[in-house]
Design a protein that fits this description.
The protein is an alpha+beta fold. It has 9 helices and 10 strands.
């Protein structure tokens, strides 16, 4: 009996954790708190803080200088002569100015946050509810504290230089985009008028409808029912890039479709604008100018892939969905003595976005 008691006690001892195993502690963890704050040189030395502030607003003003240089370089190195050297210098110097403007803002902001703004850690308690007066007051106080810690409100030199740098950084982009618009001159007073330019394309009476981009003439008998053909004026195919091929093509591109003649809803003044169910409409969307090239054969709808405007080909390409403001301009067409499709005249209204017509 004593032998059995000794064996049981020995078994109990064998189940106790050995000294090499960790014992599970169910006590809650202790918050170690925040580490001691390590002061920066700008926290200890007021002169160092002044140097840091001067560095920050100097960088911001350097950004302003970079933006001004980008605008000046755009004017000093024109690209109107289309020479590769001129384009290279223009891109290089304008790019350097914009890069300096953005880089100086970035470095100044980083130096501001690391050397001038407060770097003390703090704990923001979270509450179960929001919207009470006390909560709103605490939010306002948080903004006040952030303003105080960043020095944004009292460091006028930094604040003013940052505003100037941000405002100036926009100007190069505005200048570059403005340069994309045609400029009027004494030789061509209409060059700066987009409404006039978009009212006149390469289409004229007798212009042959040709495949894009081959320039091959299109015979009416070859246009299949339900098909959609990308079309340009025949004269455009022989135009070089130096002579404005892309600019003229952007205005003159057309989509040609064939339906059953009885499916077309045509007003009296447009009954001779189609030929045996074949109609031609501008491919330039009247919303913002995207190419309208998706044709739904069963519904006879044209879809603009950019903003989903839809046009009904059976009814003068009128807008049936989306943000487009007006129907697609129709190109009046007929056939010559050999059965080739030709234009009766140019479009009778401006092609492209409707906002160009606003005054």
């Amino acid at each position: 009996m004593a032998h059995e008691d000794n064996a049981l006690e020995h078994e109990r001892e064998s189940w106790k954790p050995s000294s090499g195993l960790a014992v599970i502690n169910n006590d809650p963890p202790v918050n170690p708190g925040l580490p001691p704050h390590r002061q920066r040189i700008t926290d200890k030395d007021p002169a160092a803080m002044k140097r840091a502030v001067r560095t920050v607003y100097t960088l911001f003003y350097l950004s302003v200088a970079g933006s001004i240089w980008a605008i000046a370089a755009y004017m000093l190195f024109p690209i109107e002569d289309q020479q590769m050297t001129s384009i290279r210098y223009n891109n290089m110097f304008v790019g350097l100015g914009i890069a300096l403007a953005l880089l100086a803002i970035g470095i100044g902001a980083i130096h501001w946050s690391k050397a001038v703004m407060s770097d003390k850690e703090f704990i923001e308690p979270r509450h179960a509810t929001r919207g009470r007066d006390a909560t709103r007051e605490a939010a306002v106080q948080a903004f006040r504290d952030a303003n105080e810690e960043s020095g944004f409100g009292r460091r006028t030199a930094i604040r003013g230089s940052l505003f100037a740098a941000l405002a100036a950084s926009i100007l190069p982009g505005i200048t570059l985009f403005r340069g994309l618009a045609p400029q009027s001159s004494e030789a061509d007073p209409h060059a700066g008028d987009p409404v006039y330019l978009l009212s006149h394309t390469m289409w004229k009476e007798g212009s042959y409808l040709a495949h894009d981009p081959s320039g091959e003439r299109i015979r009416a008998a070859d246009v299949m029912l339900g098909s959609a053909v990308h079309v340009i004026p025949e004269e455009l195919a022989s135009l070089s890039h130096h002579d404005g091929y892309l600019e003229e093509k952007a205005k003159a591109i057309v989509l040609l479709m064939r339906l059953l003649p009885e499916q077309l809803i045509e007003s009296e003044d447009r009954k001779d604008w189609s030929y045996n169910g074949i109609v031609a409409y501008s491919k330039v969307c009247t919303h913002v100018g995207c190419p309208v090239a998706l044709y739904e054969q069963q519904t006879h709808h044209l879809l603009c892939p950019c903003h989903q405007s839809q046009f009904d080909v059976t009814d003068h390409a009128k807008v049936i969905f989306g943000p487009a403001a007006r129907p697609l301009p129709q190109l009046p067409i007929t056939v010559d003595s050999e059965g080739y499709l030709v234009a009766r005249r140019d479009f009778t209204e401006p092609v492209g976005p409707s906002f160009w017509e606003r005054h």
